[in-house]
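Inputs:
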Amino acid sequence: KAGVTQTPRYLIKTRGQQVTLSCSPISGHRSVSWYQQTPGQGLQFLFEYFSETQRNKGNFPGRFSGRQFSNSRSEMNVSTLELGDSALYLCASSLTGPEAFFGQGTRLTVV
Amino acid sequence: EDQVTQSPEALRLQEGESSSLNCSYTVSGLRGLFWYRQDPGKGPEFLFTLYSAGEEKEKERLKATLTKKESFLHITAPKPEDSATYLCAVQNFNKFYFGSGTKLNVKP
């Protein structure tokens, strides 16, 4: 059974640019959550999508947005990148319960 | 304010030396407490979910327990392959709050 797949694994972007990250959940999983992980702040919840609808949102600025498609694949977009957006972005999928399975993450570096 | 605190930040053990990791939390409406293991360069790997005080879960050398204010992850006779960062998270309704983790290093 394939796990959660995130692409790309690594990205380098310049301040002011925008970026789109992709997440393919485990087959059959309808919930997809996104997290930002940094050494200083740890894992912070960005948002969760379920059946193409945003169900929950963390405390991040509006520059961070996401969407989910009918096949449950999800994308996260960050506009007007700042140096502080450099982080590991993790996607997690779950079936119905709260147990989440994480992908390997996308390492974003903003220069 | 909902909050999760893990201690210690780092722990060095000799192989076979048992110990415990702590996760204390303040959250309104706890729906579940979760333990994850994270290896360098990888996403967290789910270990356990605990729902109510008094509950215990075991998996190989790991045992997780839950009280009303904290959870413990007990590691019995650890091996070097248990070296990783262990993360605790709590769920409040549909939001997850993660602790900063305990980095465990088990030396042979």
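Chain B is about 0% helix and 60% strand. Flag for discussion at group meeting.
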